[in-house]
């Protein structure tokens, strides 16, 4: 079995985990160096997909909040106000059934429109 002679060339130190690699440089037509990769204003496929998912989530949130506000309005019109105005239940029972409903309704509307 033959052994290879030892080399005087040292290997570069290992790169720490998670550290970015330096971008590969290419020479442009004028002889200067420029970085390869997407241009600053271009979006990658992953960025476009992420933006699409973000837009979809925003639309879903607005639709859900709009539905919720509408249902709170119906609750107030058909139950909260008539039960209070016609005194079908006493004030304590009303507060127990509908605690801070007006505050919740205002917060929801502010979130949606504000």
From TrEMBL:
PROSITE patterns: DH_2
Name of this protein: Rho guanine nucleotide exchange factor
This protein's GO CC annotations: cytosol
Residue ranges annotated for the DH domain, each copy included: 53-114
Gene Ontology MF: a single term: guanyl-nucleotide exchange factor activity
Basic and acidic residues bias spans: 25-39
Native source species: Reticulomyxa filosa
Residues covered by region (Disordered): 1-53
Pfam families associated with the record: RhoGEF (PF00621)
InterPro entries per the UniProt record, alphabetical: DBL_dom_sf, DH_dom, RhoGEF_domain
């Amino acid at each position: 079995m033959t052994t290879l002679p030892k080399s005087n060339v040292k290997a570069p130190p290992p790169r720490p985990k998670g550290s970015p690699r330096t971008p590969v440089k290419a020479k442009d037509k004028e002889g200067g160096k420029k970085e390869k990769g997407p241009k600053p204003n271009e979006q990658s496929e992953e960025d476009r997909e992420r933006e699409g998912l973000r837009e979809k989530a925003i639309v879903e949130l607005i639709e859900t909040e709009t539905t919720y506000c509408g249902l709170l309005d119906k609750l107030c019109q058909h139950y909260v106000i008539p039960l209070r105005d016609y005194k079908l239940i006493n004030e304590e029972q009303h507060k127990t059934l509908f605690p801070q409903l007006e505050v919740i309704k205002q917060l929801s509307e502010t979130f949606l429109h504000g």
